[in-house]
Automatic annotation (TrEMBL):
InterPro entries: RpiB_LacA_LacB, RpiB_LacA_LacB_sf, SPI_LacAB/RpiB
Family assignment from sequence similarity: Belongs to the LacAB/RpiB family.
Keywords: Isomerase
Source organism phylogeny: Bacteria, Pseudomonadati, Pseudomonadota, Gammaproteobacteria, Enterobacterales
Protein name: Galactose-6-phosphate isomerase subunit LacB
Source organism: Pseudocitrobacter corydidari
Single GO MF annotation: galactose-6-phosphate isomerase activity
Gene designation per UniProt: lacB
Length: 176
């Protein structure tokens, strides 16, 4: 079964987004279910809107993973982390990408095309994409931190009514 994923970019990251999208589909057996930026011009001044949209796509369980590519990946991740249940990290190296997923069950990574070249970016994507969080083998501290993150989100953010899954705070067999 293909892993469903969202991908978006600004105008700076458009060419890299296209290359990573192709890599995901052809090499990683992924199905891109959200890709709203079809031209460089559509990427201008859009990160806040796309962050809001991508958060919704993940909250509604249309997919559980997302990638955003711009100059650094920072602005988008700042915005998307304002949404209940979302854990996004701007990453610049494979180890941080791997740990974002294995320690924090991060659903979204922000990538910077001004930070790394295409081949290194593929290594970062591999480290994040290929290392799914597994509640059966995850460190106890990581699982406790996810539950604490959920408590924090519940206290500080509004949970949308259309959230369709537990957002990776708990194993899939536990209800929301």
């Amino acid at each position: 079964m293909k892993t469903k994923i969202a991908i978006a970019c600004d105008d700076v990251g458009f060419e890299r987004k296209e290359a990573i999208k192709k890599y995901l589909e052809e090499e990683k057996n992924a199905e891109v279910v959200y890709d709203p930026v079809k031209s460089k011009a559509e990427g201008v001044n859009n990160f806040a809107r796309l962050a809001d949209e991508m958060a919704g796509v993940i909250q509604r369980d249309e997919c559980r993973l997302g990638i955003y590519i711009c100059g650094t990946g920072i602005g988008f991740t700042c915005q998307v982390n304002k949404h209940w249940g979302i854990r996004a990290v701007a990453v610049t190296n494979p180890y941080s990408a791997k740990r974002a997923r294995l320690s924090n069950n991060a659903q979204i990574i922000g990538l910077g095309c001004r930070v790394n070249d295409l081949e290194y970016t593929k290594m970062i994507v591999d480290a994040w994409f290929d290392n799914a969080f597994d509640f059966a083998t995850a460190r106890e501290n990581s699982k406790k931190n996810l539950l604490e993150a959920e408590r924090s989100d519940n206290a500080l953010l509004v949970k949308p009514a259309d959230v369709r899954w537990n957002m990776g705070f708990r194993p899939d067999d536990e209800t929301i």
